[in-house]
Amino acid sequence: xxxxxxxxxxxxxxxxxxxxxxxxxxxxxxxxxxxxxxxxxxxxxxxxxxxxxxxxxxxxxxxxxxxxxxxxxxxxxxxxxxxxxxxxxxxxxxxxxxxxxxxxxxxxxxxxxxxxxxxxxxxxxxxxxxxxxxxxxxxxxxxxxxxxxxxxxxxxxxxxx
Length: 161
Hints:
By secondary structure, the chain is α+β, with helices and mostly antiparallel strands. The chain is built from 4 helices and 6 strands. It has one domain (11-158): GAF domain (Beta-Lactamase, 2-Layer Sandwich), CATH 3.30.450.40. The protein starts with 10 loop residues before the first helix and ends with a helix.
């Protein structure tokens, strides 16, 4: 099991270090599964108070998201576009940050312990690749500043997909 990365300093300094580590892990690798797997493991190691970190990949021929590499308990395998937090973020192509999942109409509960969630779409060359999904057992875990950092993480990652 990974240990959480310990850093002293601001959230911004921590994410700057995380982005450097991501670049180092992905540099020179072109395999999407390997890159997504390492990205999920890195985030799971870095983030505190999370219970699921992973990706759902867009399958245009099926019009849905399909489970990709992740860290956490077994998860829902298929999510229709515009359903749940992941499907909404993918359909709208915008990050969706949910402070309380019980208040999100149509939330898909894969893990009953989840209380808050953030989903960041992965877009490259104006094409939807999938979404980064992070769940937490803590209400309102993901604040606006962290959303911006996770969107930067997703932007760096998509360069390698």
